[in-house]
Amino acid sequence: MKYVDEFRDGALARKVGAKIAAEARPSRTYNLMEFCGGHTHAISRYGLKDLLPANVNMIHGPGCPVCVLPIGRIDNAIELAARPGLILTTYADTMRVPASKGLSLLKAKARGADIRMVYSSADAIRIAQEHPDREVVFFAIGFETTTPPTAVAIRQAEALGLANFSVFCNHVLTPSAIANILESKEVREFGTVPLDGFVGPAPVSTVIGSGPYEYFAEEYRKPVVIAGFEPLDVMQAILMLVRQLNEGRAEVENEFTRAVGREGNAKAKALVAEVFELRRSFEWRGLGEVPYSALRIKEKYRACDAEARYGITYRSVPDNKACECGAILRGVKKPADCRVFGTVCTPENPIGSCMVSSEGACAAHYTYGRFKGVPVVGAEA
Ligand code: SF4
Question: DSSP letters along 214-225, please?
Answer without folding.
Answer: HHHHHHH---EE
